[in-house]
UniProtKB/TrEMBL annotation:
Residues 189-248 form the HNH nuclease domain. It comes from the Bacteria. This is HNH nuclease domain-containing protein. InterPro entries: HNH (IPR002711), HNH_nuc (IPR003615), SRA_ScoMcrA (IPR058712). Transmembrane segments: none annotated. Pfam families: HNH, SRA_ScoMcrA.
Amino acid sequence: MLWPFELHRSYHRRNDIHARFGGQQQGGISTPADAPGIFIFTGHGAGHVGYQDVFEADGSFRYTGQGQLGDMRMISGNRAIRDHVQNGKDLLLFQQTKKGGPVWFEGLYVCGGWQTEQQPDMDGQPRQAIVFTLVPQSGLAIEVEDFAAEAPTDLPLAELRERALQAALASNEASPRVALMNVRARSRAVRDYVLGRAAGACEACRNPAPFLTAAGQPYLEAHHIHKLSDGGLDHPDSVAALCPNCHRQAHFGADQVALNNALFERVRQVEK
């Protein structure tokens, strides 16, 4: 889905977000049932209820999970953030600078892991809090040169698929230091499987790859379906292997919407 939000533009939470997409209108994590995304809100008032959210120098965001009193548990909104890739949900981050004011769209993020640490709860009592490390999607696109840099593994396709699905779960605890490494490893696992699934032919036009790489592999590019960039959700259901021409068409062609819709259905059928 192409979200209608522009980076660093302000929006009215109730009118511009919930009226259109649904989801809980209170709290920091909103999980609309019928929209392919999870809305995360941070900013004004967070510190007053024990939350310690912060943007790191590397662009990642440390986000304290849901739960104001006592130890946090991996349920509800927390579980939704942890499993968002597996469930095909984007993470959209919004920041509020003053009470009752607009929220600013900070971009699309990917959960790179989480850890538990001691923080005060709403009553100032120490408790174990879940802290997620969210990585901006904008910095995750694999450069074209990376596709030709090394040959995909020669493991059986079934094993490649299992590795990709396990990587999409992102279920292991991870400190902020390894969050980006986890996300990039997930991208590579899904890429390797998708290239193996394509078996040397573009999954859009069905023509053979236009050439072989220096490693002797058919050259195809991983495309994140229904994304503005190729830093989107890394899951076998959401990624296709395309020839360079179809890849550009999927992003810039006049028929890009129809092409991506058809591609989504084709990949979904294959994955079934």
